[in-house]
Structure formats: C-alpha cells, structure tokens
Amino acid sequence: xxxxxxxxxxxxxxxxxxxxxxxxxEGDKISGVGPxxxxxxxxxxxxxxxxxxxxxVVPGFIDLHTHLREPGEEYKETILTxxxxxxxxxxxAICCMPxxxxxxxxxxxxxxxxxxxxxxxLVRVFPVGAISKGxxxxxxxEYGELKEAGVVAVSDDGQAVTNSQLMxxxxxxxxxxxxxxxxxxxxxxLAGDGxxxxxxxxxxxxxxxxxxxxxxxxxxxxxxLATLTGGRLHIAHLSSAGAVxxxxxxxxxxxxxxxEATPHHFTLTDEALENFDxxxxxxxxxxxxxxxxxxxxxxxxxxxxxIATDHAPHSxxxxxxxxxxxxxxxxxxxxxxxxTLRLIDQGILGPLEAIGKLTSNPARIIGVDLGRxxxxxxxxxxxIDPKRTFTVDVNRFRSKSRNSPFHxxxxxxxxxxxxxDGKVIFSDENESA
Length: 433
Ligand SMILES: [Zn+2]
Prior knowledge:
Elements: E1 2-12, E2 17-26, E3 29-34, E4 47-51, E5 56-59, E6 61-66, H1 79-88, E7 91-96, H2 107-120, E8 124-129, H3 143-149, E9 153-155, H4 164-176, E10 181-183, H5 188-191, E11 196-197, H6 200-205, E12 209-210, H7 213-229, E13 233-235, H8 241-252, E14 257-261, H9 263-267, H10 289-301, E15 306-307, H11 316-319, H12 336-345, H13 351-356, H14 360-366, E16 381-391, E17 410-420, E18 423-427
Parallel strand pairs: 1-4, 1-5, 6-7, 7-8, 8-9, 9-10, 10-13, 11-12, 13-14, 14-15
Antiparallel strand pairs: 1-2, 2-3, 5-16, 16-17, 17-18
Bound molecules: zinc ion.
C-alpha cells in the first residue's frame, strides 16, 4: 500500500527543506520527497492520497523523556495509554524513563516494556535503563545486558546520582556501549524537602524552597565528569539560568554534552504557583522570569538541543492534596506541540528550529536513524494543522492521568494525522467531537 501526502508544507530540519512538497510512502518507508505533482506511483489504483494543503508535514516527534508508569503503577499510565497520548500529541517515538516498579535495571524489565509496546503497536518505545541497580546510587547496572535488550540511554531520572564516583564510572562504562548518560541534575542536600523554586514568590507563598544552585552545581559536576571521561552526557529538563550558561560554556569547549528543556519550563514562571495548583509542582521546579528568559535564549542559540516533555502522570490520589504532600510532575505529551509553536509566534525559534528540537536533534542524541524525511527512512510522519485552535480539556486526553496545569488554556496547533512506519496511528478525523 502506498500513500501520497499531497500539497503540504514540508519541514525537514535535517535537510533544511521548508517548501510545498509531496511525500510519497511505499510500505513502511518514505520513497520520495519532491515538488507538488512530481511524484507518481506506477499504478494509481493502489495509492491512498492524503490531502495536506494548509498543513505542515514534519518528521514524527521523538520525546526523550516520558514516564510510562508500567510496570508497577498502571493506575497512573500504561504503556498503551501513554502510547495513545504520545500519538495524539504528534509523537512517533518516546523514550521511557526507568523509574518504574520494578526499576528498569535489567533485561527482563526492558523485554517486558518492549513486548507491551509491540502489543500497543502505536509509537516506538525506546526504554532508558537505570544508571544504578534499583536506582539506589550504589552499584552500576549491567549496561551491556541493557543495551543488548534495547535501551538507548541510561539514567537514574527521578533520583539524582549523589555519588560522584559512581557518576564518573557510569560515564566511562556507558561509553563502552555507546550509550548517553542522562543526568537528573539535582543536589539533594540543597534541594532538601523543598517544593518550589526559591525566590520572591516562595517567600510570599510561604512554601519550602529549592534553590536553582542545586541544579547548577550538579550540571557543573556532570559536565566536568564528561570532560574528564569523554563520555556522552545529556542533561534532562534544564531549568535554571546558571545551568544554561554552564552547558553553553562546556559545549564551547567541545565537551560532549547535550540538553533538553520542557514546555513547562519555557512557558511558565513560578508566579503561576500563586493559585497553589499542585499540577505546577514539578522537579526541577518552575523558576523565575530570569530563568525562563535564559531557557528561551538557550533554545534560540542552540545550547538546548531538544524539547522533551518529562510527561509524569499522577492520579488525583497523589495530586489532590496539600501542596507540600503532592507528588512532583505533570503530564505533557498532548500539549507539547502547541506550546512549542508558541516559541515561533514569540520570535524565539524559526519553524525548522522548533521542529528540529522535537525530531532530528533528539534522534541524534539517542543515536537512532529517525527524525527526518528522506527516501529510505522509516515513514514516521506527523501532519500538523498550525492554525487549529482548541481549548485544552484534560478530560479528553488519551493519557490515563489528568495532571496538567494547562487545562482551560486556549492553544493553537495540533497534530491531525500521525503515521509510524507508514501506518496511521492517530487521526483527528476519528475524534468524536
Ligand atoms: Zn528528572
């Protein structure tokens, strides 16, 4: 079966293409990208035409940072519901963090995740293995076994690696298997039992504080260890101005460090917490206007390579409580695209740059041949209606959880058709309005 995506604005950050083009798909691969009308199938009868006039045609998005909660907390999210949420958000691949129950620190858990993902048969699921056994920060996990089972990176995300010697060994050991080490950069002793960013707003609200230096110190440590070891370091959810500047400096020295920022960190400031919405309780915390500007600048100048959701589902049991007791995290797969498109409207990113941070850049960081539209590539393609406006309604999310602070926001830009391996995994036409 062939598909012709006709007359859309094709944006392919890897090649720099931004033009009205057709995209031809044969089987599970892209077979051609060319000017309108230039691609003809041998027999018209077998070609399904997807009209894309007025739409953007882009590589399927790749999320470097998703929490799927299965195994262990299926009441929050499953691999199936997380995959459905991802597809509805325009993603065709997601990297799932290892802080499940049990932790993904061995091939049995990785195998389980991949089996469940294959059953769902929606987005590609790339498991991330743990840095340390049980994410206890004491003994390294078996990276060879994990890599062979299919992990694309290692991380103790959710937990900081407090032991610097262990982090050094992780960066050395992961190199043997060509795996990036993803750092959740947080000095636990400084973060303490804080629940929000330290600043004027926390003083006014009387909530316990997490200083931005808790992040800066660990970013400095991990970049220094990457310098020493030559390992590949990726900093998760960059949120502070100081951390952005550190990554910028280490990159300028040629150190192998990459970084991601979340839509909530480039959209919100801690002033939003005035309403005590526990959906705004995230780790790292939403920070000051100065930090927000630094994140946006870091995205603009390339210091921050990727946009990642840190999709962290929690049920009302964890969130419908006092701020101090609420769990950290918000969901993000179904709002990442329109929040990213706001950066274009704000003049911070051009369209190709914005799409690149969701596609070709994350693909490069985890070393997979995805995130581009070229003949021979897997046909992972997302069609976006950039003008579609909608009001965020968490009750219509595919995710099993509802913990989004963007409920009620009017946003613009939506994935309308999503293909993985040439197969439609999401279509807005199937929506019951
Ligand atoms: Zn984290």
